[in-house]
Amino acid sequence: KVHKIAVLAGDGIGKEVMPEGIRAVEAAARRFNIGIEWTTFEWPSCDYYLQHGKMMPDDWMDQLKGFDALFFGAVGWPETVPDHVSLWGSLLKFRRQFDQYINLRPVRLLPGVPCPLANKQPGDIDFYIVRENTEGEYSSVGGRMFEGTDREFVLQESIFTRTGVDRVLKFAFELAQQRPKKHLTSATKSNGISISMPYWDERVDAMGLSYPEVRHDKYHIDILAARFVLSPERFDVVVASNLFGDILSDLGPACAGTIGIAPSANLNPDRIFPSLFEPVHGSAPDIYGRNIANPIAMVWCGAMMLDFLGHKEAHDAIVAAVERCLVDGPRTPDMGGTATTTEVGKAIAAII
Ligand code: NAI
Ligand code: MG
Fold first, then answer.
1. pLDDT tens per residue across span 71-115
2. For ligand 1, what atom is nearest to the CA of residue 86?
3. Could you tell which of 281, 299, 340 is best to mutate to test the pocket of ligand 1, judged by most ligand atoms within 8 Å of the CB?
4. Which residues are within 8 A (CB) of 277 and not within 5 positions of it... i.e. 6 or more apart?
5. Is 259 in the pocket of ligand 1 (CB under 6 A)?
6. Residue 81, ligand 1, Cβ within 6 A
7. Residues of the chain with CATH 3.40.718.10
8. b/e per residue 133-149 (b: at least 16 CB within 10 A)
9. Atom 40 in ligand 1: which residue has the minimum CA distance?
10. What is the mean pLDDT of the chain?
């Protein structure tokens, strides 16, 4: 089977790291004899917006829905297009319309990466964050009344559906089941948020009954955030609602090194719609145009994409190549080196 992949490089360094992500995936595809067909799109991007008044054409969904995966760089160019316009006009549409209800981020301290936490070795930090990506606290239900008066009030509801909660928990338990430690941690706040979070906890316990081999525990989000920093070695799979997961999934990668290496996936595990693979970082206008962006996040995204498409061996080969490059290969300036984006990308591809 040939995998059809849409290339959406976007803006800024998205355009610089994308060729290196493709280079790594192609190297792995050659080594493991995987068929890949790339199709490049000029949108979504702020350049497209300046010409057309929107980030993408109206029929974007028809154009993209037949692909097996979306390989996404970053969008955003705040000098010309406000960030909420570029983000809501592209990435957030993909997540919602393609029902990418899992946001998955690996958090791993790799060898050769300076760790901001004291006394941590590679191997100490190795877990996944599974964030609910479609409902919860990020609902658009609510409103504002009596604006500008003393009676002004605003209201925004959280929405937790049984289907929405159970499907993210199921994904997280399945992932934990496949890992050696078989340990799942749920983020909650059922002491303070007294209706929706006790419900979340109940569903965690109910789902746990179907996974007797997986040990599960829960932490309130405040102490959980502290434990990410103080004792990250205790985690294996962490599952969280949309808001809590959003916060944890930036904190986690920050604990494991620079933003230039952190990947993420927005998954539709039912495979009705394409899933999207993107670096955690944005378009970095401050360094764009100098070919110094770190391509490792994009390369690692390529590995996650191949894993999701059924090629675990290709994933492992790319991650191993990244690890080796971090130890004795060229480095971009954010990692203390002087190499270019292209040099690092080529070095990784050569190792693969
Ligand atoms: P950013 O992630 O683009 O940059 C933050 C800092 O990290 C900058 O100093 C940048 O130079 C550095 N950095 C980021 N990626 C790097 C890499 N690969 N190698 C070396 N250094 C790297 O976040 P910022 O500055 O808040 O946002 C810039 C634009 O990106 C905005 O328009 C924002 O909306 C957009 N953005 C888009 C995202 C997406 O497409 N998913 C995610 C985050 C931001
Ligand atoms: Mg975030």
1. 999 999 999 999 989 999 999 899 999 999 999 999 999 998 988
2. 34
3. 281
4. 69, 70, 71, 72, 263, 264, 265, 266, 301, 302, 304, 305, 308
5. yes
6. no
7. 1-103+259-352, 126-255
8. bbbbbbeeeeeeeeeee
9. 74
10. 96
> Which strands make up the sheet holding 215-220, listed edge to edge?
35-41, 2-10, 69-74, 275-279, 263-267, 102-108, 126-132, 237-240, 183-188, 215-220
Token pair listed for 189: 């706040």
What CATH number matches the domain at 1-103+259-352, 3.40.50.720, 3.40.718.10, 1.25.40.10, 3.30.565.10?
A: 3.40.718.10
Task: Answer yes or no: is the C-beta of 117 below 6 A from any ligand 1 atom.
Answer: no
Residue 74 · residue 44 · CB < 8 Å: no
Instruction: Tell the CATH topology of 126-255.
Output: Isopropylmalate Dehydrogenase (3.40.718)
Q: Hey, how many other C-beta atoms are within 10 angstroms of the C-beta on 208? A: 16
Does residue 259 surpass a pLDDT of 90? Answer: no
Sign of torsion over alpha carbons 176, 258, 138, 270: negative
The structure's pTM equals 0.94
Q: Scanning the structure block, which residue is given the tokens 């040990």?
A: 215
Q: Is the CB of 297 under 6 A from ligand 1?
A: yes
Q: Residues with Cβ within 5 Å of ion ligand 2? A: 246
